[in-house]
């Protein structure tokens, strides 16, 4: 086993030499070797197996290109070789010169020398930055500096020289985030995408005017990241903190606003990589123990991710944050106090896959008494269906304005996106809906009056379908509670002077009782004209209402009229559907979605008994037929997207958007605030 010696050590070599089992006497050739290189060769004499005089050698110095070397002594006698010594020679003294990255000497620089088996040496350079180091162990050594400093380079070692070190020292702080502090409210962890935290990009940061803290309250699409040394007191003015910002591979194609690192506050060496998905650079601390800032635009698309790494070196391994874009949409419920509000759990679940956090503000709820409700909005449900409740809330385009005014002002003044859910028992639209028609009664024309009475009389009836596909002839004009018959006059086609007004008791209009018709019985004077063979013209004006509807997004804003009387999940489906309309779904063009292609929607349709654009994803090509003649009553058995406008029954209770609509829902700017 090799022994360890310092260079310059005096080595004494002795031996016990044996030949043919007896102590050897005679000449011995001895070689002194450094590695395989012969340093000295001599012949000495041995007597009775021992050298006549001990052999003494001095270990040569370790060369500057060597860390150590092997030394050996081999003797030869009687054609026999024997190794007398095997040793490893280590340096005793080395030198070091310390400088900073600008190659300025570091006077009196403190450093450590570490060797196995002995305590660390705490040493200091002289005024000239130089130090002579006496090694304490016959072993490898290393020169070290204490944090937050590190050795950037040892020039001589790099050249393969180990006796005279030229050590370049750099500050190497550890970095940390000062803000945002995602461990505190209002920040939330996204449980489905942990360890990402939610940033509500459609909300306005309370610190929007303060560049130093913009976005650090979890609101806004821009975040100013404030960084420092860890601990802060390790930082010195102009120390660099490096950053790496990486946007997710699956982020939306929306490109306005552009996801980027902004140049305010100032950053240095900003570099874009991977087609703009990764950006690197650094900022400098503004003071000893101070901070530095850089600002990131996250974009406004839901589900987009951004990972921010920082470090005291460009390896950026000290700290990281992962941000995921969410959009907040509050909900205010307005309803009649006697009605039961449905659970909104299914609506919240339907919004979640498109990164809309649907949150009811229960403190903003409005429960209307009959006296508080807008005029003529509370009426008997028997107007609309047999067995309807005595006090029903009716909302439509004829009276939506006063209901919109029930939205709490805080949502508008604080620019909070809010779905104002106006829950009603019946949703019918009656604004400007008066059917004006001239009917002809010929001699011999009869109707059953009252219907199903078996009594036929001269008269005429007008079907509601002639007023429109969704038109209903109700027994009240729901705009003001008055008689729906605004005009019903007759005149003879033979003599216009023979005319009159049809009495009210000769007119029946009640779609729940008599079907969706206006039944008109001719008065006696008109019957006389018919008996004389003259036809009668009847001028009829009747108010009607379109409906019933499950819901209505009022003119594309976030006031949503929602009909009750169904399961909570079906009601929530309507809520998500109408909120979808409020955020421009189903998308028809790419205009509101910069960066996205025109919607590749092969099941898009408009109308078909509904207002606005809809989605028939899941419907076969033959049933869809270009969206021009599709039957929305029967299509509900196939369509799966929540943006399908269902007239009939649906076989799915899904409240989610289909894969065709989802990219556009994620990309839309959910910033609309309801206005009256």
Q: Output the number of helix runs.
A: 10
Task: Name the helicity range.
Answer: under 10%
Number of E-state strands: 47
From the N-terminal CA to the C-terminal CA, the straight-line distance is 95 Å
Describe the protein's topology.
Blueprint: E1 3-6, E2 10-13, E3 18-19, E4 22-23, E5 26-34, E6 37-47, E7 50-51, E8 55-58, E9 69-77, E10 80-90, E11 93-99, E12 110-115, E13 121-124, E14 130-134, E15 141-144, E16 149-154, H1 155-158, E17 164-171, E18 175-179, E19 197-200, E20 222-229, E21 240-247, E22 260-261, E23 268-273, E24 278-284, E25 291-297, E26 305-311, E27 319-336, H2 345-351, E28 356-360, E29 366-368, E30 378-379, E31 392-395, H3 400-404, H4 409-413, E32 418-424, E33 426-427, E34 434-441, E35 446-448, E36 456-463, E37 471-472, E38 485-492, E39 499-501, E40 507-509, H5 511-514, E41 517-521, H6 524-531, E42 536-543, E43 545-546, E44 551-553, E45 559-563, H7 568-582, E46 604-606, E47 613-615, H8 621-624, H9 632-635, H10 662-667
Parallel strand pairs: 1-10, 11-17, 19-27, 27-28, 27-29, 27-32, 31-33, 32-45
Antiparallel strand pairs: 2-8, 3-4, 5-6, 5-9, 6-7, 9-10, 11-14, 12-13, 12-15, 16-17, 18-20, 20-25, 21-24, 21-26, 22-25, 23-24, 26-27, 30-31, 34-42, 35-36, 36-41, 37-43, 38-39, 38-42, 40-41, 44-45, 46-47
Helix pairs in contact: 2-7
């Amino acid at each position: 086993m090799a022994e360890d010696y310092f260079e310059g050590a005096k080595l004494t070599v002795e031996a016990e030499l044996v030949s043919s089992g007896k102590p050897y006497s005679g000449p011995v050739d001895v070689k002194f070797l450094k590695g395989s290189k012969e340093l000295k060769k001599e012949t000495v004499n041995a007597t009775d197996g021992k050298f006549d005089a001990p052999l003494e050698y001095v270990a040569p110095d370790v060369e500057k290109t060597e860390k150590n070397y092997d030394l050996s002594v081999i003797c030869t006698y009687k054609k026999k070789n024997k190794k007398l010594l095997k040793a490893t020679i280590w340096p005793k003294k080395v030198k070091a010169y310390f400088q900073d990255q600008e190659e300025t000497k570091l006077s009196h620089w403190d450093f450590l020398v570490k060797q196995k088996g002995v305590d660390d040496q705490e040493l200091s350079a002289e005024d000239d930055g130089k130090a002579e180091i006496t090694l304490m162990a016959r072993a490898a050594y290393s020169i070290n500096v204490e944090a937050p400093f590190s050795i950037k380079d040892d020039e001589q070692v790099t050249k393969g020289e180990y006796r005279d070190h030229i050590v370049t020292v750099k500050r190497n702080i550890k970095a940390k985030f000062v803000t945002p502090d995602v461990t505190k409210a209002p920040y939330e962890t996204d449980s489905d995408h942990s360890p990402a935290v939610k940033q509500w990009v459609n909300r306005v940061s309370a610190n929007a005017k303060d560049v130093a803290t913009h976005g650090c309250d979890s609101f806004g699409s821009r975040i100013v990241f404030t960084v420092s040394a860890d601990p802060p007191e390790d930082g010195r003015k102009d120390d660099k903190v490096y950053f790496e910002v990486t946007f997710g591979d699956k982020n939306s194609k929306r490109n306005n606003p552009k996801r980027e690192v902004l140049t305010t506050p100032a950053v240095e060496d900003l570099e874009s990589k991977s087609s703009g998905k990764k950006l690197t650079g650094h900022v400098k601390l503004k003071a000893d123990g101070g901070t530095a800032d850089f600002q990131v635009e996250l974009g406004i698309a839901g589900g987009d991710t951004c990972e921010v790494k920082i470090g005291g070196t460009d390896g950026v391994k000290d700290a990281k944050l992962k941000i995921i874009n969410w959009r907040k949409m509050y909900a205010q419920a307005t309803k009649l106090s006697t009605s039961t509000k449905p659970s909104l759990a299914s609506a919240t679940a339907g919004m979640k896959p498109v990164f809309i956090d649907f949150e009811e503000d229960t403190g903003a709820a409005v429960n209307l008494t009959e006296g508080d409700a807008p005029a003529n909005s509370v009426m008997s449900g028997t107007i609309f269906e047999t067995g309807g409740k005595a006090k029903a809330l009716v909302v439509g385009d004829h009276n939506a304005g006063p209901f919109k005014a029930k939205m709490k002002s805080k949502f508008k003044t604080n620019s909070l996106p809010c779905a104002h859910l106006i829950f009603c028992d019946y949703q019918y639209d009656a604004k400007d809906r008066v059917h004006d028609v001239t009917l002809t009664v010929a001699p011999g024309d009869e109707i059953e009056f009252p219907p199903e009475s078996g009594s036929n009389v001269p008269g005429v009836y007008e079907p509601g379908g002639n007023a429109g596909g969704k038109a209903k002839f109700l027994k009240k004009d729901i705009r003001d509670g008055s008689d729906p018959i605004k005009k019903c006059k007759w005149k003879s086609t033979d003599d216009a002077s023979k005319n009159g007004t049809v009495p009210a008791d000769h007119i029946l209009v009640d779609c729940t009782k008599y079907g969706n018709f206006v039944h008109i019985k001719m008065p006696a004077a008109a019957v006389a004209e018919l008996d004389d063979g003259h036809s009668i013209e009847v001028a009829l004006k009747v108010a009607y209402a379109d409906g019933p509807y499950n819901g209505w997004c009022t003119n594309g804003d976030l006031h949503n009229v929602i009909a009750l009387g169904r399961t909570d999940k079906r009601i929530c489906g309507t809520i998500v559907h109408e909120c979808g309309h409020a955020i421009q779904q189903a998308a028809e063009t790419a205009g509101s979605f910069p960066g996205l292609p025109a919607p590749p929607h092969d099941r898009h349709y408009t109308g078909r008994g509904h207002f606005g654009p809809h989605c028939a994803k899941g419907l076969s090509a033959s049933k869809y037929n270009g969206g021009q003649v599709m039957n929305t009553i029967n299509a509900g058995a196939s369509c799966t997207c929540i943006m399908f406008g269902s007239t009939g029954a649906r076989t799915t209770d899904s409240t989610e958007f289909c894969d065709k609509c989802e990219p556009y829902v994620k990309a839309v700017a959910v910033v609309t605030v309801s206005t009256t």
